[in-house]
Amino acid sequence: MSATEHRPECRSIAAWLFTTDHKAIGTLYLGFAIMAGTLGGAISGYMRLELAQPGMDYVVNGQSWNALITAHGLIMIFYMVMPALIGGFGNWFVPLMIGARDMAFPGLNSLGFWLLPLSLIMLIGSLLVGDGTGTGWSLYPPLSGIDGQPGPSVDMTILALHLAGISSVISAINFVTTILNMREDRLPLFGMPLFVWSILISSLMLLLAMPVLAAALAMLLADRNFGGAFFDPAGGGDPMLFMNLFWFFGHPEVYIMILPAFGIISQIVSRFSGRPIFGYPGMVLAMASIAALGFIVWAHHMFTVGVGFAPRAFFTLASMVIAVPTGIKVFAWIATMWGGSIRLTVPMLWALGFIIMFTVGGTTGIVLANAGADQVLHNTYYVVAHFHYVLSLGATYAIFAGFYYWFPRMTGRMFPEWVGRWHFWCFFIGTNVLFFPMHFLGLAGMPRRIADYPDGFLGWNMIASLGAVLALASTLLFLVMLAVSLRRGASAPRDVWGPAFTHEWDDDPEMARPRGTAGAEAGA
Amino acid sequence: MRGRGTVFLGFVSAMMLDARHGLAQAPANWQTSFGVSASETKERIVALHDHILLIGVCIVALVAMLIGFALLRFRASRHPTASKVTRMPWLEFGWTIAPVLVLGAIAAPSLQLLAYESDIPDAQLTIKASGHQWFWRYSYPDNGGFAYDSIMLPPASVPAGEPRLLAVDNRMVVPVGAVVHIQVTSSDVVHSFFMPALGLQIYAMPGRLNETWTRVEKPGVYYGQCNQICGLNHSFMPIAIEAMAQPDFDAWVRDAATRYPVVSAATISAQVAK
């Protein structure tokens, strides 16, 4: 079999527009995520330029600054991380890994993707009309209400998020149906690769969380346009209701983003340690319990809203408990390497970067889980540092790890490894120089979402902006490498990474049978 | 560009000065941890943070060392054949139980701190802080109910020695050593009353009256900022609290009661009627 087979063969624009092939749709998602990530990264570059010194030198005013931070957050979450991890890698590899010929609903799959560009256009439009959505991605009313943000921007943002939500729910339904019904005869649930498990669990979480966001957004839309008062105290409503609904979606959302990252890291660590993942049942249960716990910790985003001792104590303890299943995963990855035969390839480098940086982000998460300490940390740059360690250095590292890992499988071509290593080390140093000093700024009391800061915050902000330059330069290197490798990369054989434990690398995945039925062995 | 460059150099030299003199209460450049602690709450928070940080550093170091050692000991060139073992129940049990014990060591002091913060002692003074776009209004219901606005000083009129973007025209004033109840609310959008030096933060929510408390231990001027995105001038809504000895505070109250208007229920309903 030639290495080019079983890849999407879309030769015309119309073929890309109307394709229902899961691999082609996966490629569309990945291309979309790269474009959206470039846009979101460009916005963050602009933000770091503004924050490199005190004063407001580049943004017009606070409102346009607020609109930029809102766009940065929403773009990175809804149009970069989720499409890459779930839509991109999920579509490409879930069917191949479980031996399905395609997704259960190929037409729906195509719809799910094409809603996203429409949604992104709507979101970018919200930046261009009126004053923009200057609320932060959390969209708290009354600031997001009609008095706080007159003009059509917030309505456009709400509709953009509705579209993105529909897209997510559609793809989640598709993944759950595919994974539960279309596995090859002899592949038991507890034999599925961990990446498939991660997509299944993330999809179930999406099905539970997204409708809650949709409800909150619909209520906000009604408050803004149809005389509603769900969140307006003057009409008997309460902004705290929105906070509860938003974070009931918002906290599971962060696990929706990180679980597929866990899945990818498991595949890569196993492959390049030359052995199946250590403690497979524990890994599955850890993901399931992270998902379950993810639904009962939302109020740790609301410790300073004004709630009593008992709820804050409960949400403190529940949030800390998440460290247990997360610890299981980190230790199991290390145990897989321990006694393995490790090859430090480019994807493995990114995976190890992920494990260490995610551990740093998890540790600051434990600090933030304490309601008592949150009185001085809530909404400061410490929080910004924390969630960028788990998302920018966590989820994004996993995306790059997966991209380098599956690049030969998706394109039949190889990338120059030395560029991948340069990309990794520049991005690693850049993102750490960018985000680590933010811990210091947060401890010193710097609020997030401010465009200008007291002069005492200058030092570390300047350093952070220097780190951003390096991180963005390394991303540029990645884009150039991508463009060159897609056209001129050396042709890659299927066994480019050596023997595989999962089926997406088989010569003929459509016909492949599971290798053995013992769960742990089949399940990488 | 030259103008900007000069301003930038100015900031850098100001930064050097900062590092030398150390403006105790305002944030200082190259500060790597909490600033001044002026209340027991803040001291307790710092203690809990340091306790968790120590544990966290140990965990990160452990993970990094295990990965580093695995890379040295088990790389393909030194260890060509991978082990086939995929289960070790006692080990898996161990790495599930160990984090539970570590979390227990964090949870106990954490809940103690939370209880200390939540258990509001009897007040000697109540002050109401009301968030507005984009200033704070402080009123003193125990002292006749006078109220005044606290607005950020524009950078050009900040007196020497006071920090840009933090200095205000009228500070909130509290007596040192007294338990002060602070009621926090908002007249428009959500704001957050954030005072790092006192370990104090609570949202200003429209339609709700939140309550917190503090006891400032050291006289001085302490700075904080609105800490919840609140629109156009969210960056320019500082909080300044001046703590002074009780006799000075009494004198300030006598003066303030004559200078600032009394805001009563009647005046508020008159405003609403308009």
TrEMBL record, chain A:
Classification via InterPro entries: Cyt_c_oxase-like_su1_dom, Cyt_c_oxase-like_su1_sf, Cyt_C_Oxase_1, Cyt_c_Oxase_su1_BS, Cyt_c_oxase_su1_dom
Residue stretches making up the Cytochrome oxidase subunit I profile domain: 16-505
Compartment list: Cell membrane
Keyword field: Copper, Electron transport, Heme, Iron, Membrane, Metal-binding, Oxidoreductase, Respiratory chain, Translocase, Transmembrane, Transmembrane helix, Transport
Matches recorded under Gene3D superfamilies: Cytochrome c oxidase-like, subunit I domain (1.20.210.10)
Bilayer disposition of the protein: Multi-pass membrane protein
Keyword Iron attributed: yes
Organism, scientific name: Mesorhizobium prunaredense
Family: Belongs to the heme-copper respiratory oxidase family.
Protein name in the entry: cytochrome-c oxidase
SUPFAM superfamilies reported in the protein's UniProt record: Cytochrome c oxidase subunit I-like (SSF81442)
Molecular-function annotations in GO: cytochrome-c oxidase activity; heme binding; metal ion binding; oxidoreductase activity
Reaction(s) catalysed (UniProt annotation): 4 Fe(II)-[cytochrome c] + O2 + 8 H(+)(in) = 4 Fe(III)-[cytochrome c] + 2 H2O + 4 H(+)(out)
Enzyme Commission identifier(s): 7.1.1.9
PANTHER family from the UniProt entry: CYTOCHROME C OXIDASE SUBUNIT 1
GO biological process: aerobic respiration; electron transport coupled proton transport; respiratory electron transport chain
Known pathway: Energy metabolism; oxidative phosphorylation
GO cellular component entries: plasma membrane; respiratory chain complex IV
Membrane-spanning parts: 28-47, 67-90, 111-130, 159-182, 194-221, 241-265, 277-301, 313-336, 348-369, 389-407, 419-440, 460-484
UniProtKB/TrEMBL annotation, chain B:
Domain Cytochrome oxidase subunit II transmembrane region profile, chain residue ranges per copy: 26-121
Membrane topology listed for this record: Multi-pass membrane protein
Key words, A-Z: Copper, Electron transport, Membrane, Metal-binding, Oxidoreductase, Respiratory chain, Translocase, Transmembrane, Transmembrane helix, Transport
EC assignment: 7.1.1.9
TM ranges: 51-72, 93-116
Top EC group: translocase
Keyword Nucleotidyltransferase: no
Cofactors named for this entry: heme; Cu cation
Cofactor binding, note field: Binds a copper A center.
GO cellular component: plasma membrane
Catalysed reactions, semicolon-separated: 4 Fe(II)-[cytochrome c] + O2 + 8 H(+)(in) = 4 Fe(III)-[cytochrome c] + 2 H2O + 4 H(+)(out)
Primary localization: membrane
Key word Hydrolase present: no
Localization terms from the record: Cell membrane; Membrane
GO molecular function: copper ion binding; cytochrome-c oxidase activity; oxidoreductase activity
Family of this protein: Belongs to the cytochrome c oxidase subunit 2 family.
Function, as annotated: Subunits I and II form the functional core of the enzyme complex. Electrons originating in cytochrome c are transferred via heme a and Cu(A) to the binuclear center formed by heme a3 and Cu(B).
UniProt name for this protein: Cytochrome c oxidase subunit 2
Species this chain originates from: Mesorhizobium prunaredense
